[in-house]
Design goal:
Distance between the termini: 23 Å
Order of helices and strands: EHHEHEHEEHEHEHEEHHHEEHEEEH
Strand order of the largest sheet: 2-9-8-7-6-3-4-5
CATH class of the largest domain: Alpha Beta
Radius of gyration: 21 Å
CATH topology of the largest domain: Aspartate Aminotransferase, domain 2
Oligomer: single chain
Number of helices: 12
Strand content: 5-15%
Structural class: alpha/beta
Number of domains: 2
Low-confidence stretches: none
């Protein structure tokens, strides 16, 4: 079986030797702290290092604006917990990250979807959606976007649309949740600023993670939020787990202090750029001409669109029979649409697996068109 289904980073990128060395050092030098409970907000030295990392983006954050979480999914749950009551409205992209949709739906939010194109969420349609809600005297609790190499589509929100998104958020007084787990994994195209770095009215809550930069097993991520929201977020997290693991926080803090992360990220970019190129070339070589796909400038995924009459849900068992798997993108549409689309992951499989897997998948599609 060759799977393009998961969102797994490549194990080739895990800095095992460095983490082993640092882990041993932390146990020798800070063992009683590393194995103890810690502050809910996160270890001060890690919050300081995260602040430095974000300031490269000219984001105006301080350590007191950082809350360390046990993965980005916990961050989404914390945000849902403090913002949402049953039947509250939130705005999401179509398609949108499945983990976000699950977190919001668990708190019984009502989702309003705004389609995207190759430039990200359609801000013209977003404006219409906000205006329509305002006429009904309804205000969304927040707008949720994955602006960089979006999961599942792989597209990046342009600078022009980021600015327009902010203008609309200010005008309608709606916060923006900027979820950017893949942001640093750009290997093509031009740099685009974070939405939070463009904001001067404290309307943006940003989420980041070490799962894609170091390894997901550390289970460390963070929320960067204005001070007004931070106290409630800390209280929400405290009721969940008291604190994220101190041992892994100290490991990552030391890793950052040593200045190892920039080279680590550069190595990941080079590897994923080769894998993305291998997938695009295989798609060009094997897919029927009626099939199209995005060409992301970074991240882990690209998005394939089949002819409108095809259904990737029905196609999936046949693909599995041919020993190739993908994610059905209708799972990323809360409204049940997107049946003719699929998400492919290029970060985890090898280049040889990408070549063979796309060949198998193309044969299945061609036989069922």
């Amino acid at each position: 079986m060759i799977s393009f289904g998961g969102g797994l980073p490549s194990p080739e990128t895990f800095p095992i030797k460095e983490i082993e060395e640092i882990a041993c050092q932390m146990l020798r030098e800070k063992g009683t702290v590393a194995l103890q409970y810690g502050p809910t907000e996160g270890e001060p030295e890690l919050r300081e290092e995260i602040t430095k990392w974000m300031r490269r983006e000219k984001a105006a954050v301080k350590p007191e604006n950082i809350l360390v979480t046990s993965g980005s999914q916990q961050g989404l749950d914390i945000i849902s917990k403090i913002f949402l009551d049953p039947d509250d409205i939130i705005i999401v992209e179509l398609p949108s990250y499945m983990g976000g949709l699950q977190a919001f739906s668990a708190y019984r939010a009502k989702l309003v979807g705004v389609p995207q194109d190759n430039d990200g969420i359609r801000t013209d349609l977003l404006e219409k959606a906000l205006a329509k809600l305002a006429r009904r005297h309804r205000k969304p609790k927040f707008i949720y976007v994955v602006p960089d190499f979006q999961n599942p589509s792989g597209v990046t929100l342009t600078l022009e649309r980021r600015k327009r998104l902010l203008e609309l958020a200010h005008e309608y007084e709606v916060p923006i949740i900027e979820d950017s787990p893949y942001r640093d994994l750009r290997f093509a195209g031009n740099f685009v600023p974070m939405i939070c770095s463009l904001d001067n009215e404290n309307h943006v809550i940003a989420l980041g993670t070490f799962s894609k930069l170091l390894c997901p097993g550390l289970r460390l991520a963070w929320i960067a939020a204005p001070t007004d929201w931070m106290e409630r977020m800390v209280a929400a997290k405290q009721s969940m787990d008291l604190s994220s693991p101190i041992f892994t926080q100290l490991i990552v803090a030391e890793y950052l202090k040593r200045g190892l992360l920039p080279q680590q990220v550069d190595n990941i970019r080079k590897l994923y750029a080769k894998k993305r190129e291998a997938m695009i070339k295989a798609l060009q070589r094997y897919m029927p001409r009626e099939v199209t796909w995005t060409e992301p400038e970074g991240g882990l995924f690209l998005w394939v669109k089949l002819p409108n009459q095809m259904d990737t849900n029905a196609l999936f068992p046949k693909a599995v029979e041919s020993k190739v798997a993908y994610v059905i993108v209708s799972a990323f549409h809360f409204n049940g649409k997107g049946q003719n689309t699929m998400r492919l992951n290029f970060s985890y499989p090898s280049e040889a697996q990408i070549e063979e897997g796309i060949r198998r998948l193309a044969n299945v599609i061609r036989e069922n068109m």
